[in-house]
Amino acid sequence: MGHVFDSTITDSAHLASPTDPAVLCPSIGRGRRDGDPLTVSIAQSTTFCRDGVGSDPAHQYSRVSNPTVAALEDALGQLEHAPPALCFSTGLAAETALFLAVLRAGDHVVCGRSVYGGTVRLLREVLPGLGIRSTFVDTTDVEDVRAAITPETRLIFVETPSNPVLELSDIPAIAAEARACGALLAVDNTFQTAVLQQPLDLGADISVYSTTKFIDGHSLALGGALVSRDRALLERIRFVRKCTGAIQTPFNAWATINGLKTLPLRLARQSESAHIIAQWLNDNSTVATVNYPGLRSGDEALAGRQHNSALESGTPCHGAVLSFELRGGLEAARHVAERLDLCTLVEHVGSVETLVTHPATMTHADVPREQRLESGVADGLLRLSVGLEPVEAIIADLEQAIAYAEASAISEEVAACTPA
Ligand SMILES: *Cc1c(COP(=O)(O)O)cnc(C)c1O
Fold first, then answer.
1. Cβ of 118 less than 6 Å from ligand 1
2. Which strands sit side by side in the sheet containing 133-137, from one edge to the other?
3. What is the pTM assigned to this prediction?
4. What is the model's pLDDT at position 411?
5. Ligand 1 pocket, 216 CB below 6 A?
């Protein structure tokens, strides 16, 4: 543990693939000795002993660094051929540290209009108090990004596929705009993870993660991470983390390390199922819209270029999240969400269970209604995070819930027409 980033890793001969077992299982193949534990241990300690006054051990105090957190940071960095990541208590803590490290009063952020609701809230409600302004644009259109850039723009923040409408933004094209104006590009890669999309290879400066979602994958541990190849930037963020105290906890780092081991397998299976379910919804006459990357006409080429595969066939995987709206709007969404049985209604994505969310009242409740509707998050939109259950069982559950919503709509219409 406490494995130090080795610069030879950038030598292509040493590149670790995101499915490399030595990366996914940090305790494997690193000089195992007789009697060693098979799994990474939890260093559940606030502080670390010193040999003497002025000694300089690798870990000193767990707000600054911790061996278990460092093991997770090594793995997440290696997945993107980068120095160790910086891990945080939550995804939003990671975003906050990034913003505090790179932005000053007077600076400006260009952010996708269709990003995680908490990101919008942080940029709209907290950063203006520090003199930092944000403009929200449709990042699927590079022209819109360019038009929003001002001489004060220091950061462009993009989420692709976006949450919850799964729109794709062209990372290399936006990276070129960022370079041209001297701003940094951060990509929230929570939905695809490094397994399905490599933002740094595509030109981004920072990959942003809520590890709470697919990386942990079991709904056990909140967490966030930032990955970058810019060592000076990493040091600035590390300093902010030490000053503000939002580092990951050893226990949650341990849970996340264990989730990481099956990440490629989970994403392969969950993406395959999500694709089948998206197609099934698309063919269903009660469904008004289905959002899934690669299924929407116009984004197949970009999806194919930007997304990697977790499958042996090498076919690109577009992730496990989709969203859809029924013709019956909000009422139909309410009936479906409450009638689903196998699929659970929660505010979450990325776990082994199939989860359904109503963004308008849950994840995006704090996004101003106008911005929400403009970014495609209709009142009746439902988001589905497809789990590991047999795909036929998930479809059967959706089928019975949609039939129930239809029947309820008809009986309500009849009741409305019947004189009391
Ligand atoms: C959940 C989420 C976040 C915030 O992460 P927390 O760990 O809940 O703080 C940020 N971005 C995306 C895309 C998310 O889904």
1. yes
2. 86-88, 224-228, 206-210, 184-188, 153-159, 108-112, 133-137
3. 0.92
4. 79
5. no
